[in-house]
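FAQ: What does the model actually see?

It sees only this:
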Amino acid sequence: MPYFEFRKAGVLGMKSIQMNGRTVEEAVQNALRELNVTEDKVNIKIIDEGSKGLFKLFKGKDAIIEVTLKNDYIEDARKFLREVLNAMGILAEIDIKENDDIININLIGPNMGLVIGHRGETLDSIQYLVSLVINKNNNGEYKKVILDTENYRSKREETLKRLATKIAYKVRKTNRAVKLEPMNPYERRIIHATLQNDAYVLTYSEGEEPYRKVVVDLKKKA
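And it is asked to produce this:
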């Protein structure tokens, strides 16, 4: 008869089980049946490979393994977001898609302006918290989280690109550097990328977070 032992690991209730079998393969199958999952949903650690009996005179030693459920990133993200949205009094559909190591989350519903916040600050804060939740105790398999609603990210990117082009023209015309308002790292990268091949201006960042800002200046002042 196989024996097993349940354990808990991590704040999200990640489950670990020890199981035995006449072989490692049998122990794995026993564990998968007990957890009711497929092998791609677990991490397997061999504790003891066991041994065969000798000429049927001596009983063999069972193999022992430890099987741990992998993080369910989708459900972790969905559960956390639902709690946050409920606390904010917001009804929204949560659409989550995973592509390689990127988890794209789109919120659909009324009052999304409350979720976005001033220049996306609330949206960025929630995105950061979701990333912390799903990447905790993930055994190094980092998942990037992109949280969006009403196509805000794309619209904001286009706005920043237009701003970068406008500021570059202003710097050339006035022959004076321009400091932009403080931005998060993602938005600063958009400004830098937009102007990186400009023949007349250069960009750099200065200041400390969260007040770090982009400076646009002439490459060669007249």
